[in-house]
Amino acid sequence: MKPKSCDPKSCETCPGKEKMSKEESVQCKLARIKNKLIVMSGKGGVGKSSVATYLSLSLARKGYKVGLLDIDLHGPSIPKMLGLHGVLNVTTDQQIVPHQYRPNLKVVSIESMLEDADTAVIWRGPLKHGVITQFLAECQWGDLDFLVVDCPPGTGDEPLSIARLIPDAMAVIVTTPQEVALSDVRKSINFCRKVSLEIAGLVENMSGLYCPHCQQFIPIFRTGGGKRTAERMKLFYLGELPFDPAVVEGGDEGTPVLEIEGDTAFKQAVEHFTDRVLERLRESSDDRPSQDKTIH
Ligand SMILES: Nc1ncnc2c1ncn2[C@@H]1O[C@H](COP(=O)(O)OP(=O)(O)OP(=O)(O)O)[C@@H](O)[C@H]1O
Ligand SMILES: [Mg+2]
Ligand SMILES: [Zn+2]
Questions:
Q1: 55, 89, 156, 258: which is deepest, by most CB within 10 A?
Q2: pLDDT at position 99, please?
């Protein structure tokens, strides 16, 4: 039986706190999180951090308890996108207290743990794995419906660490419609298959623009590439998000567009994408009768 509470003093299945290894603490923390999603892509700048942020916000707006974890040790961008400042508090028993962005949305980024946001961080592989393990072991997430993890570009140390530490996670692969981005997607897919990380599906970002004057859709690059790749690679297609200049502004100002009044094509697309993710997770939990994947 899974421990209900992972306070080691009251948890029958957990060893005493002093005896717990970092990996055991990670498993204890993860037992309280129902669904884990890793947002990744073989390519930089395709919108992973934006997708992770908007998915987390959208899930939180639907009432789920959400945690957003930024493990991009070289260029963390989540705090900037959400306008979060300051270092995180650490309790006397070494627990990292996440930023409380909303009552049901907690955020932790490596940046929040650095004194100076502009410090260039040079981490070697084993060090990175140690930091990510520590994050997972010491973050005070509590009970969550979703943990959304924002990865750096590529298929390097961070996605590898996180895939090993959270074996029941599912990957959300982000792409843009260009052919070059799609070849990187194939790399991500191969990576996931190699490390046995289940893929939730593929989302195409910046897949065109709605003219702000006449609202006509302008396919800047060839459209439909994400969908075609998903079909070809037998992946679930999670939909597409249009290019919206307000997303760039919102990202720079720390005010995500979901927090701004008014209906837009981008907001509708985020809603559709979130519903597709939920649909996919429901299907997946029907396929595998695992307690951890149920959505209520
Ligand atoms: N749908 C969109 N419409 C307009 N701008 C977008 C959209 N998605 C992302 N952007 C912008 O593109 C830039 C890159 O996005 P983001 O930082 O999310 O990408 P990333 O894949 O996380 O990058 P990195 O590989 O550096 O981590 C940002 O300025 C962001 O505001
Ligand atoms: Mg990023
Ligand atoms: Zn127009």
A1: 55
A2: 93
